[in-house]
Amino acid sequence: xxxxxxxxxxxxxxxxxxxxxxxxxxxxxxxxxxxxxxxxxxxxxxxxxxxxxxxxxxxxxxxxxxxxxxxxxxxxxxxxxxxxxxxxxxxxxxxxxxxxxxxxxxxxxxxxxxxxxxxxxxxxxxxxxxxxxxxxxxxxxxxxxxxxxxxxxxxxxxxxxxxxxxxxxxxxxxxxxxxxxxxxxxxxxxxxxxxxxxxxxxxxxxxxxxxxxxxxxxxxxxxxxxxxxxxxxxxxxxxxxxxxxxxxxxxxxx
Length: 254
Fold this sequence. Notes:
The chain is mainly α. The chain contains ten helices and no strands. It is 64% helix and 0% strand. Helix 1 packs across helix 8 (197-204), helix 3 (74-82) packs parallel to helix 10 (217-237) and helix 6 runs antiparallel to helix 7 (172-191). It is globular, with a radius of gyration of 18 Å.
């Protein structure tokens, strides 16, 4: 199978990352807690936000995963590179594209959200991630660091396993989307769930200085977790080399 050109792959990554931020963070910002005219909360809550993130990835993996591999996340790109599912020479372009596309989605969400009278991105948190006082459950830095490492590692295990050439064909997108939903159900009360540096940066730009001061954790921890999974997947499961790879490292079987 001939590999898609790099420009097409980056275009697919841009679409997927934009949709992940716009759909997932947009749900958290616009509908996570919504007060109707009777002053009653009718928001979608944690479950709705978790489903939104899972559905964005599920839909875009099937839509464009066959073009780029369906990463939409710098940590995923690094983890797949460590596991030899994508060549390292493509990693910088993927990551830059993901960060730009996610940040563009964050900007558009910021413009839309400010169309509501009284909206304040800093006061609302703007779906940003945090630890300590900025953690939804006031979890410590260490607790948040561990949670993000573990959650990202298992996200990569699911991705690597679901796209392994020994796995059933055609179900990877479903497994990946549902795993991200589960990850958010666990992680939202702890950190607001990152597992994706592009998603964290996308909204931190607009959430104030405190969000930007803490965003380092949501860059470092997901990368560590992804690298752990990339290194250990083959050892744990007995995979023989880059199982789901085509020319120039694009993952098959989205």
